[in-house]
Every structure is written in structure tokens, then in C-alpha cells.
Amino acid sequence: MQAVSNKIKESKGDRLFLIVTYSLIGMLVLIILYPLIHVVSASFSDPKLVVTGKIGLFPKGFNLEAYRRVFMNEEIWIGYRNTILYTVIGTVVNIALTMMGAYPLARKNFPWRRGFMVFFTITMFFSGGIIPMYLLVKNLGLYNSMWALILPTAINVYNMIVARTFIESTIDEQIYESAYMDGCSNIRAFFSIVLPLSAPIIAVLVLFYAVYHWNSYFEAMIYLKDRSFYPLQLFLREILVMNQSDNVMMDSIETDSSKFLVAEGVKYAVIIVSSVPILMLYPFLQKFFVKGMMIGALKG
Amino acid sequence: MKKKYVLLLSTLLSVSLLLMSACSNTGNNADHKAPLANESTDNINKTGMPIANEPVHLKGLVAKYELVKDWNEHKGLKDYEEKSNVIIDWDSVPQNTFEERRNLLFASNDLPDFVMRAMLSPQLITSYAAAGQIIPLDDLIDAGYAPNLSALMEANDGIRKSITSADGHIYSLPNISEADGRIASSWINKEWLDKLGLEMPTTMDDFYEVLKAFKEQDPNGNGIADELPISGYKENNSSGNEFFRSFYGSWGFGGNSGIIAPYMDVDDEGKVRYIATDDTFKDMLTFFNKLWAEGLIDKEIFSQDMNQEVAKIDEERVGYVAKGNNNLWMGDNRSHYVQNPIFKAIDGDVYWTGVSPKVRDLGSFVITSKNPNPAATLRWADYFLSEEGTALARLGIQDVTYTIDGDGFYKLKDEFSNNPNGLTVDEALAEYTIFQGGNIPQRVTQNVDQSAAVLPEMIANKDVIRPFLVPDEKLMIPNFTEEENIQLSTYATDIEAFTDEQIVKFITGARPIGEWETFVETLGKMKLDKYLAIYQAAYDRWNQQ
To answer: How do residues A169-215 score in pLDDT, each as one tens digit?
Structure first.
């Protein structure tokens, strides 16, 4: 846009338009960026200044105590390992099932297509609730294993519908026809035509599913017993709770309030520790993201 | 065409429903078939160690306090396991996620053998007992499988009264706290008093003058009128504000029963009374409204959290705070504060109501109906009610973490009380003790309590209010029947929330005190009388026992 200004003189209206646009976007960026930077700054600052609201954009009273408290706990590495494991395996399973479900439903000549769609859709709105779910997981022998976190959430119907719409609208029926003429089977069509052409939607789904697995803790809380299986989020939650207290009549020997002040910093450090790895996924998928989102959503 | 889909769909649905019900059926059957083996009583010793001659294996569920190590790898418990021959496979759930797990296990009837640190409310105990999921312990206690509890109950019959549920059974073991930790504190800035040459106030009027002086005479000497004569913080789990509650006794409330529920005590005629509708309470509100209007109360008192409040204390800006049971909660300037005496606001008797009953944390240990070895389980838990057992719970292993001196006082070893790596005592003891966070059966005496409450200066602080404590035998612990519980839940939440909200409005002047009558009437419309009648029934039952 700036390059244009050299050649053709902008009219006053154009210039005004640009100024307004840029200042609006600038404000928006500020609104979004400020809290993020604040969190980073606060995690490196003296907790006392954080509590009294003296931290703005830059850290004051630089201090790493909060991070020391988080990483003092050796179990956090177990948590990282498990979370990465669950995220990778879980996402692979998710993508495989979602695409395999979406493809036949996208084909117009698939028998009972609408019936299957209705059947899937119902599960989006009705579920058995937590107690039957728990009993089911337990009776399937998944209790206290990592599969309890992966199999019950192996597919998300909403995401599958997004994928179906994408396949339906981007891959023309005629492509299949010409493929069949050359002797291609349905399975070959899926692997050689549908999957390569669905790269944008797969990227979007990877992001959706990976973030979900990364952040999830509720299933872990209910289905896991051994600490060696705990994901990162559970350990972080423990560290957070451990460092704060709001019950002053609680039974403890040493209740030094200065220790609880550190909790303020720990809160922020925990946010950084838990979100930085997944944030790093964004830049790699971002270019697909806009494209995939739009196509999936418009005709959904 | 369309019909075909509908048919298919309904077939699919019904098949899946069938499958689902089949699944849950087998689940239930498996549950009920679990053989309740007859416990061989020959194996269990009624006194001494080991508890069982042949090892007994149990499955326990526990709310693991975050600081404490996994109960399966806990050195203190391993030591006890060897001594007792009771081997426990723990489902050691972090406390912050415990409630969901416990409720889920009880709702799906997938029960462990027993629950430690169960944190069951009396209401939940009653309903689980009514469902037959937890068992009454009285027969086992009478049969001698809880020797320590039996001895305590014999010495003090108030204990049996306190731990008996409304249906006449005992379902849980108590935490008996005889140490000073059960007495709450409030703190006045002695340094400011001295600086301004003021006497320690003893009446509410004196206190008012002192607060005014704090506000106007710049006791922290920074030249700015930034002093906050009264400060406090918003608590998450309790009704009303602590600064306000700390003055109940000054207006004579709570003397006959303690504060039995939010805004509730018993009057001189033995009738349960909602103090928030009492005329004396109106005087109290009027007084605090005056303080608020004159800027003597921190404007953020109803919104800030404890960390923000501590930061203000650290900045030397606070005159009075009601909080905690020792002054370690008071931040860096803790040495400036002392316990204030009771400020008399009325002519009659005044009290200190910030004292919890000796018997507390009911619902910290329950045995489920699944347990094949209830006697061994009960003995295992009862051990914590002995002095030796409480020492295990609070101090760890003798000669490893603590020693006993000639006078019978327990003393933590230096590397734990003064950890070289900068850990707090609670952290240093993480794999030796289980008391952190409370809620276990134990008997805390000054001998085994290692908290700050046993320091001589802390005892001196408590001595100021000790003569005004509501007597122990009067402190009531209400117990309700299952039916009363259900009724209570319909009234309590609304009435409490409404009162909390209105009291803040009266204090801050958002609602003029002239509307007091309307306030009382609205409470009446919320069926306050029925709510009180339930407590009255519980109180009468309590008195008869």
C-alpha cells in the first residue's frame, strides 16, 4: 500500500481513509497485545508490585522467583512429556477419524448420507452425562490409561462437518469421475485425491484438535489415577494452588504471607509456561488457517 | 426415501440405547456382586501394633493436599504401614480436583474402601449414609476398635454429642483441636498507638476515636493521609466479611452458642435467632456506616484479595485487621500488631466469637459399605487420635524429623524447622506428614502443635481474649436429618446471599439504614421463620443429647 503513494498522488479522501484505518487497526492491535505483554512482564516482576497494580508494559523489580517455583517441581517435566504425547497421538487419531468420516459424507452417491448426518448431529446436542461416561470408560478398561484421554474424544462432530463441507465444495464430482475412468478405487481416491487437496482444512483441524488436547484437564482429572500419567495442566494447577491460600484458619505450621505474594507471580508464570509451546504452533499453520476457515465456514 | 432414513435412524438409536443399558447393567452387577468377605476378627488386634497379624490390603481415596507428596510414596505413611501391617493402595487425588472425583465415585457407586480427608459436609454424610454408601461406626467403636476415640469420649462426653449425626449414628472421625490454633485473631497497630500516645481502646467509642486519630494524625509519618484505619479482604468461602464478624461479640452476639451458621446464634431464652434482624444488629450497622462515611474503612475492603491487603500492611498503611490465627499472616510488619481486647459496645456481657469448636472437620474420614475390613480400617484411622499418631500426622517420624524432650514436648529437627534450602516447614515435611491443609482425624494439643500458635508471644496475644471466649460446652455443631437437609438447601443459599449483599449496602450507605424495616420484611418473605425452625429443631436435639 505504501508503494502506491510514489506513483499516483493520493486524493485527500484516500489519505484520510488510510489514516483512519491504520489508527483503528493500531488500537485493535494494542488492545490485543497489551494483556499479552502485561502477562509476560508480570511474570518477571516483583510480586509486590504486581499486586499493587504498578506493572504496566514493562517488568519492574526483575525477578525469576515465580519461574523458580514452577520449575522447582520436577514433575512438571513428566507433565510436559505426557501432554506432548497426548497432543500428538490424540491429534493424529482425531485427524484420521475426522477425515475418514468426512469423506464418505461429502460424496453425494453415498447411501443413507442424510441419515448418517442426522445421527452424527444428534450427538452434538445430547450426551449421556458425566456419570454414564465415567462408567463406560471404566468398563471399557480405559480408566487410568492414556487412552481415556484420547478415545472418548477421538472425533468432534462439528469439526467433521467443517471438513465435509470443505471436501464437498472444493473437490468437484467430475474429478472423482475421471479418476474412476482411470480405474481408481474409492480408497485410492481418498488417499491420492482428497487428502492432498484438503491440506488447508487439515491444518485448521490440527490446530483445533491440538489446542484442545493441550488445554484439556477435566478428562485427566476424572480418568487418571497415577501421577505419572498426569498432563501438564494438572501439575500446573497444583503448583498454582500450592502457592496460594485464601483460608487463613487452615492447618499449617508456617504461613508466611510473603510466600503467598509469590503466588501472584506464579499465576502469570504458569500462563507463560503452559501456553508458549502451543503458541509456537500458530505461525506454521497460520497461512492455511484463514483459507481453511473461510471455505469450511461459508457453506457450512 | 425419507421413511427409510427415519427407520434406519430409529433402529440405530434403539440399538445404541440397548447397548448402552447393557453396558451399565453389567457395571452395576459387578458392583453388587463384590463379595463382602466376613472380616476375620482374629486377625485384628484391638490394641497395640501391629493392627493386623496377617497383612490387610485396603483401597483408600484421599484428597492430597498440594504440598504433600503422593500418599503412595509417602515416607511417614510407609513407616506406619510397616508398623500396622495395614497396606493401603491410595487413590491420591489432588485436593483441588478432589470434590469432582469424590462426587463421581459416590454417584456411580464405584466406591473405595474408605475415604481419608473426605471433606464431607454434614449434609453429604447424611445423604450418603441414607443411601447406605457409608457405614455407621458406633458398633465397631463399642466393640473396641477405636480405643483412642473411646477414651476421649469417656473423658469428655461433648465429643460423642458433637460427632453423632441426627440419626443417632457416628459416621466419621473428628479432628479434635485443643490448641490455640482454633482461636481467630484480630490485630491493631500497636506501633501507631504508641506513636500517637494513645491508650489501647477498650470500648467501641474509644476505638472510634483511635481510628479517627489513625486517619488524621499521620501515624506512619509519610506526610500523606494514606492510612486505612480498618482494612480487610474478600474471602471466597465464607459469609460476610471477617472484619465485621470480629465485632459480633462486642455487641453481645454469640454468647450462648457461638455463631452456629452465618448470622445465627441462640438468644438467652434458648431460641435460635437470626441476628441480622435484631435491633442491636441495626445499631452495629449504623456504627459501621458512620465509620464508612468518615473514610475509616478501606474502600476496597469488600473487593480486594488477601495479597492486595498484605501489600497495604507492608506499606505501613493499615490500623486494624481481623484475620488468621497467628500473626504470620500479617506480612513483613507483623511485629507492629498485637491482639486487641474486646471493644465493649453494649452494657451487657461481651464475647469473642472467633473460636471454632474443639471438635471440627467432621467428615474427614469415612468407611464405605464396600469395605471388607472395616474394623482394621477404623483402627488404622483411630491411631491418629493418639498422641503418637498425631505426632506422625503432624511431625513425621521420631528421630528422623523430630525428637521428644524431657517434658514431653515435641521438637522438629533443625533441618526441618529451619530448612537450609529455604523451604517452609510445611514444604520440608512434605513426605513425612499429612496434616497440611487439615481435615484429618487427629488430636492437636499444645504439645504436638508446632504452628506459630504455640510461640510464647502468640500465647500472650491469645491471653488477651481468652477470658471472653464462648465456653466450649456451649459451642454448637448443628446436625440435620436427611429431610431437614433438603429443606435447608432451599432456604439457606438465598437468605445468606441476600443478607450478605444487603449488609454491605447498609455499611457503604448504598442503602440508607432507614430502610431497615423493609429489609427485615423481605427476609420474612424469604421464609426466614422456616429456615430458623430447622435450626431450632437441631438445637433442641443437641440440648437433649
So the answer is: 888 888 888 888 988 888 898 998 899 888 888 988 998 899 899 98
Take residue B13 and report the three cell numbers written for it: 438409536
Residue A43 burial by Cβ neighbours in a 10 Å radius (0-12, 13-18, 19+): buried
Q: What is the spatial distance between Cα B486 and Cα A37, in angstroms, rounded to a whole number?
A: 49
Distance from the Cα of residue B454 to its chain's centroid: 20
Which set of grid coordinates corresponds to residue B6? 427415519
The owner of cell 494483556 is A35
What is the tens place of the pLDDT at every residue in B10-22? Answer: 555 555 544 444 4
User: What does the alpha-carbon distance between residue A90 and residue A83 come to, in Å, rounded to a whole number?
Assistant: 10
In the beta sheet, which residues pair with residue A2?
none
In contact, B355 and B183? CB cutoff 8 Å = yes
Spell out which residues of chain B touch residue A114, defining contact as CB-CB under 8 Å. 5
* Domain A69-298 class in CATH: mainly alpha
State how far the alpha carbon of A255 is from the alpha carbons of A225, A252, B367, in Å.
30, 7, 32
Strand residue runs (E) in B364-407: 365-367, 402-404
Q: Which of B20, B330, B451 sits opposite A252 (nearest CB)?
A: B451
- Write down all domains in chain B, each with its CATH number in brackets: 41-180+360-448 (3.40.190.10), 186-353+474-544 (3.40.190.10)
Q: Are B332 and B318 in contact (CB under 8 A)?
A: no
Rounded to whole angstroms, how far apart are CA atoms B303 and B287?
21
Interface predicted TM-score (ipTM):
0.75
From chain A, pick out residues whose CB is under 8 angstroms from the CB of B96: 237-238, 241
Cell of B334: 507483623
| Nearest C-alpha neighbor of B452 from the set A152, A151, A253, A197 | A253
Closest chain A residue by Cα to residue B237: A247
Of A269, A213, A275, A272, nearest to A240 by C-alpha is A269
Q: What is the pTM of this model?
A: 0.78
Q: How far apart are CA B366 and CA A234, in angstroms?
A: 26
pLDDT value at position B25? 40
Give B26's pLDDT tier (boundaries 50, 70, 90).
Answer: very low
The answer to whether B283 and B277 are in contact (CB under 8 A) is no
Substitution target in A46, A130, A247, A249 with the highest count of B β-carbons within 10 Å is A249
3 state DSSP class of B56: strand
Strand partners, B57: B87
* Element containing residue B338 per DSSP (H, E): strand B337-339
**DSSP reduced 3-state for A77:** helix
Contact B390, B448 (CB under 8 A): yes
Alpha-carbon distances, residue B342 vs A105, B242, B285, B453, B455 (angstroms)? 76, 15, 18, 20, 22
Q: Which one of A114, A234, A246 has the shortest CB-CB distance to B235?
A: A246
* pLDDT category of residue A300 using cuts at 50, 70 and 90: very low
What does the alpha-carbon distance between residue B117 and residue B488 come to, in Å, rounded to a whole number?
25
| Interchain proximity B96–A251, CB inside 8 Å | no
Alpha-helical regions (H) of B131-241: 138-140, 147-155, 157-163, 190-195, 204-216
Q: Where are the domains of chain A?
A: 4-65, 69-298
What's the rounded Cα separation, in Å, for the pair B227 and B318?
6
Residue A22 CA: distances (Å) to CA of A4, A28, A167:
16, 10, 37
